[in-house]
Amino acid sequence: MLLRAAITALACLLSLTSIIFVARLYRRDNASSSEWIPSFAAQHIEPCPDNLDWLLPLDLTYPVKYARREIAVEPTAGVERLSVTKRDGPLFPDFQSVDLTDNARVKLKNCKDPLTIEVPEHAKEPVDASHIIFGISTTLTRLDASIPFLLRWLPTTNAKLFVIVVEDDDVPDESKDRFRPADAKDMAGLESRMRSMDLDVTIVHPLSKQHWFSQRYFSLVRLMYEHRQPTTQWISLIDDDTFFLSMPALVKRLSEFDARKQYYVGAISEDWWSVTRYGLMAFGGAGIFVSIPLAEIVNSKYDDCQERSHTSAGDIRLRECISWHTSTKLSNVLDLHQIDIQNDLSGLYESGRLPLSLHHWKGGGPDGKGYPLHTMHLVADICGDCFLQRWQFGSHMLLVNGFSIATYPKGIKQLGLEKMEETWDHPRVVEGSVNTNGVDHSLGPTRPKLELGEEKIQYRFLASSLVDGAVRQIYFRAGADGDQDTVLELLWRNQSWSGSRHEHGNDSQIL
Fold first, then answer.
1. d(CA 54, CA 471)
2. What pLDDT is recorded for position 171?
3. Between 203 and which of 171, 191, 347, 428 could a Cys-Cys bridge form, CB atoms 3.0 to 4.6 Å apart?
4. Which of 60, 24, 58, 59 is nearest to 40 (CA)?
């Protein structure tokens, strides 16, 4: 008995130590770990729990309609990510009204066995991106705020990041300075903190005190080129709100280009008006990739391009320099996304496509609060490139992993899911253009926007957390006309978990 008690105490101590270690690893000065990453609470997951305390921090208005399902992921050789995968049977049991106002303990009446979903096999080890150097020009504050998002794609890849920072660009008109410099001590502190999180970052002052933003952005080429290694193949200019969804997919896509030659890789805008105004150039927020042979030429013409260009946009300055001194043209990669469309981007996120990059996620959305990609993307820890993957359940429900669950009262079959729903605001019109919706060149084919609440009942992603080796997702829809709000929970975990029996069902391709 004493031996068993000692072993139990030791196990608890080790578990607590692990949690504290993770929390400290991601801790900011004067900030709790919960501000950085979702909960790492160590608890056993029951298929039909009697305690829903994880809903309490969401500040819901009770009672709510609630349903949950556990999904066991099974990486399987030969399985491909399809545009839509069809599943037999419903995803959720019947809704149940729950009220956690006074007590988080409930008795769930409707529970379904865990559902096993096959996904493509994904590498167990991080991809090696040591041949890529990334560069950002931003402010110290914005860089700090971007860390949770960088943590989703940059660590453990061996890729380096160089950041040119300033305090801000708000200087008096009579000042000869172009910016207010960041404090060197603050820069060193942030760099040290980021490196402790396995972010191989170097933070520097602008290369010249006379540089405006576009010049600082362009100077990233020189900074990264001068810090290249013999193995470096690409330098990449990105914004502080550029988000790469899959580093393995990005590395694979770049491998299709012969980096020993001059390559200028990126994406034009999704907005045809912007393309007609600014030309066939790589828009910076999507990510720009310059091969080392081309970077060598740009670096050799650096002074000429800095003096000759008068644009206020850094990506335009780079395009001008390349066009002035080389014959290299843009290699357009449609899966890199600048995101120059506005407001509700549901159509893009729900399209079933896996973008290489997303941009402008800090703002926009139907509520103007942006898209929390760092938590939306957590499910990728369980199932690889399954983020934003679509599964259809029955004839009316569609799950878009990490973004939404939607039901279609008139059925899914008539929608045409191979086309992207035009949920965003209509782009600016280009007179005389046959590209009448302004996005056919990039996002087409498209279909008309559906009426929310009538033709489409949408439950939007609300929150996500890591718990007991699983990822818990919460989807939410506000009640209409006095109806209760609805909360849907999905718990994603590896198939190897030894819990209750799993319900397999059949997968089949729709599109």
1. 12
2. 61
3. 191
4. 24
Q: Which residue has the tokens 């000042």?
A: 175
Angle, to 10 degrees, between the axis of helix 213-226 and the axis of helix 292-300? Answer: 120
Element (H, E) at 447: strand 446-447
Residue written as token pair 């357009």: 332
366: region left, alpha or beta (phi > 0 left; psi from -120 to 50 alpha): alpha
Amino acid 504 reads H
59 neighbors 487 (Cβ within 8 angstroms): no
How large a percentage of the chain has pLDDT more than 70? 86
Measure the CA–CA gap between 400 and 392, rounded to whole angstroms. Answer: 9
DSSP for 91-144? SS---EEE--SS-SB---S-----EEEEEE---SSPP--TTEEEEEEEEHHHHH
Token duo for residue 476: 């939410």
Distance between CA atoms of 352 and 372, rounded to whole angstroms? 19
Contact between residue 455 and residue 34 where contact means Cβ atoms under 8 Å apart: no
The pTM assigned to this predicted structure is 0.86
pLDDT means over runs of 10, the chain (511 residues): 42 38 34 40 61 92 95 93 94 95 90 92 88 97 96 97 89 64 96 98 94 94 98 98 96 98 97 93 97 98 94 94 97 96 93 95 78 96 95 97 97 94 91 89 95 96 93 95 94 69 42 40
Which DSSP symbol is given to 432? T
Residues 6+ apart with CB under 8 A from 169: 178, 179, 180, 213
Whether the link from the prior residue into 445 is cis, omega within 30° of 0, is yes
